Amino acid sequence: MNNLTLLLPEIFVVILGFSILTIDFFIPKNKKWILPCFAILSLTGILIFTLVFLSGKTDELYGGILRIDGYSLFFKSAFLILGGILIVSSVEYVNKNLSNQGEYYSILIFTVLAMMLMSSSGELLMAYISLEALSFGLYVLVAFDRYNIKSNEAGTKYIILGALSSAILLFGISQIYGLLGTTQFNEMADILGNTSSINPGLLIGFLFLIAGLGFKVAAVPFHMWAPDVYEGAPTPITAHLAVGSKAATFALILRFFISGLMPLMIDLQIILIIMAALTMTLGNLMALVQSNIKRLLAYSSIGHAGYLLLGLSALVSINQSGNFNLAFISNTNFVVSGIILHTIAYGISNLAAFLCISIIYKKTGHENIEDLAGIGKKSPFLSMVFAASVFSLAGLPIFAGFISKFYLFTGASMQGLIWLVAIAIFTSLISLYYYLRILKYIYIEKSKDSQQINLSVISFGLLSVLFIAMIFIGIYPAPLMDAIHHATDALSMLN
Amino acid sequence: MDSNNTIGLHAAWVIPLLSAAAFLIIVFSMRLVGFFFSDRNKLAMLAPIVSITAILAGFILFWLVLLDVLNFDGGSISMAWLIVGPAEIRWGIFVDKISVAMIGLVTFISLLVQVYSIGYMKGDRHFEWYFAIHALFATAMLTLVLADNLLFLYFAWELVGLGSYLLIGFWWEKRSAAEAAKKAFITTRIGDVCLLIGIILLFRETGTFNISEIFHIAESGEINNAILNSSVLLIFIGAMGKSAQFPFHVWLPDAMEGPTPVSALIHAATMVAAGVYLVARMMPIFELAPEIMLIVMIIGLITFIFAGSMALVMNDIKKILAYSTISHLGLMMLCLGTGGVAAAIFHLIVHGIAKALLFLGAGSLMHSISNETNIWKMGGLRHRMPITAVTFFIGAASLAGLPPLAGFFSKDELLLSVLHDGQYVVFAITLLGVFLSALYMARVAIVPFFGSVPKNLAQSHESGSIIWVPLVILATLSAGVGFLILPLGSTYPGWAEFINPKHHFEIKPWLMILSIILTLIALILGWSIYVKKLVSAKQISQFIPYLHKTILNKYYIDDFYQWVIDKCILTFGRLVALFDRVVINDTVVDGSAISIYLSALKTRVFQTGYLFTYGAAMAIGASGLTILWWVLLD
Hints:
The complex is a heterodimer of chains A (495) and B (634). With 495 residues, chain A is mainly α. Helices cover 77% and strands 1% of the residues of chain A. Chain B is mainly alpha-helical and 634 residues long. In chain B, strand 1 (75-84) and strand 2 (87-95) form a beta hairpin.
């Protein structure tokens, strides 16, 4: 019997999304602040409920379509928290720039639902549908700033290229289903493990699948939409694209690879290595010549997708000969933990960076790097958080980004990918240049005007939380690592 | 972890945290006070109250820990800090007899020094900051003695270095103080680097930073002998730096530039004690490396004699005390080199109390005679400052080894330990050093208080009670703490057994009599030279003019270092700078940066902004990857 109560967190999120839409009808225009408050309180409640209710439960629903385990619990909680942060960071932006608040918040909440489903999908079609649910939400949100031509352009580009990538993805899925006769990850692993020679059509299927997913995480050569869309979208949504969408796709990819594709990983590794190398290099290189800060961060997040791909390509050792022993599993677990940790650390740092940009944009109306001049004097606290997030993205100690990069690179070199790690370290070095360039404008360049930037209580609180999180993870990662290890263990038990 | 003794253990980790909290509170309240109140002086007393409360609470908790360790056996608690694959790095504390003794010493001396400082530092411009660094320094030292793993210990070790740097350079507006702070920091830094290398070597061999685990692995003989020897030697070099052993001793006499209570703290309880503590703590692996033990002994012996001779000819009261500290630290190292942990730690405590007393006494003297430090410009002060005089005398007599003061017992233990090791030549030289130390103690105590009164001596009077009360407490302890060597009640079996149950307290009457005779001869000699003028010090020095001059110039060691820095290191540095500018900066860095930037500009061409380009890129990318894979796999 399917225990539907296990889906309660998702059901609650759906109810929340619809009730926001409904409440929106009944409150007057000047009381719209009720919406985000209600949303955040409910999300907190759902988070607590999820943690209490689902902890320790392992089950599958509808014959393995959805999996309830430690891994999905970890990501569900992470996405609920992320949803809360995104809503808080949207409040001021939405008030000033956007109309139709109710729709904005409810679509945002539906994307959270989609991300939660992505992390628990155990089957390709479910994965595809939840991925599309996320994408559709994002298409709308990207174009939400209706009277802004850039936002419109971004929305159009995103939906057309997104459709193309969905086509590629679906083509891949149909190939796989046609040749293997299943879309379940576990069954795929069984079939792949028992066949010695692989059908070329199947290979094309998997490659197209990777290409489609590569679009979502903005991996080279499927990355070109990212800078344009990031630049045009409302800044909180850019943060969503850079953090939420990417994290959810990686959560999906990790489960798919570990529980479905492990027997094929040795063959797929070379493609992942190439993609990782290209993505790291191109992302960081292109960021060097950007003048718009959101475009810069778009390229930087492409670079970070490259580091995560580095992790994916290190799921199996380079000398692996098809023999999955205990040492192999422990190395793989190490790498998976590294990927998850980097996703979290990169997510927190990026959220902080985008929040800073959003605040600066709200006050100055500019998004170019030159316009950051003198912010250090105008708002020391904001600049401190911005600097911390930039350092964290660059991977400097004592911030979260250092620990996660260290973990990730250690794992990859344990698996023998020394050259790829060398590229990663070299591109990190390049990235320092454009990260530090931001700081140069913030702290060294003189401002043209003396307009003060005053932080609202909401921004101040959120910035402090993100700042503390970056430093806390940077100097005392053990509690988070503990949670991540639980998630990883849940994943490898399926193996 | 034994479930019985959790209270003491938990009390133990709170002790350093209290001082850390005090540090933070003072630092932040300094900012806030400046923010809210225009008149900062009104709230100046907040800083000493916070830091003294913290250290007092630490001292009270110390008794709890001590009771626990007496009844049970100590233990350790820790928490995971960083897990990297198989290696798990933990932060934790380790409580045993030695660390309890050190906590007692550190909290007690810090407490008295801080109380004394309220009087001594009154009206200083950076009054609050002074107490903030004191709290930081106490935190660092307490963490150091409690750390259960070498990495944690190293963190605290560096923090001690930072604390001493800040305190020695406390009057940083004065150039000599800033220079002295730098000298202390850089000199000890050489040792610190060696210590770090030693720790990393041990980690590489054993895969753990945990001290007990390292002992365990080392004792089972799993560490390569050469690596064990070199890491032990490196750890000892680290200890030499902090404990001012020859040839790293040069920073300690200059450290006088800080406020006098700081000298008391550094010489007695914190900075220099760290090195001795480290060697004592790591004794199990030192004992596995007998060659290094020999080096420890020889370095200790050299330092003992050599610093003693310099203490004999200096004229500055603080310098004499500084060289006497170096000399006594040498004695402790010498004793550690013979394996006498109990005796060395005992002397560390006895010396710490006496030296804190002497420095605080010297501070009281200087405070009343307009900061004069030359002992020949003082004299006859026993009438004007009776309390300072009596307490100073007790401290000096204790360090000279006069029975029944504490120094007599500790020195006896040290001599016994050397004798047990069977090194008779070393023993004989040690006796010479004992004689020297009694002689310079006689000199430094007799001249200012009994010497003839100089003509232009400033008006002086006894210091206030906040200054003399700590002196009296220290003097009492200095006289009485020696009896700790004997058993007390049923739980305390006497010092030697307390530290190591296998040891036993013993008395060799001939040794006692010998050391008493030596001390008395030295004191009588001192009396006849400096008071009765029966023998002229000048005539003695004319016997050996060159030696005297060499010693007066501190054996030219400082000059030699200066020469090396000026001629060799700076020349080399200029060459490196030239290479850096031409090859590294202009060619490699700028050249590669420019080429990367150009390649980025080239790549930018593909980002056209047109949808069809993007779509084409995706299609070409997907098919390209497929073809590539095909080619690569076949």
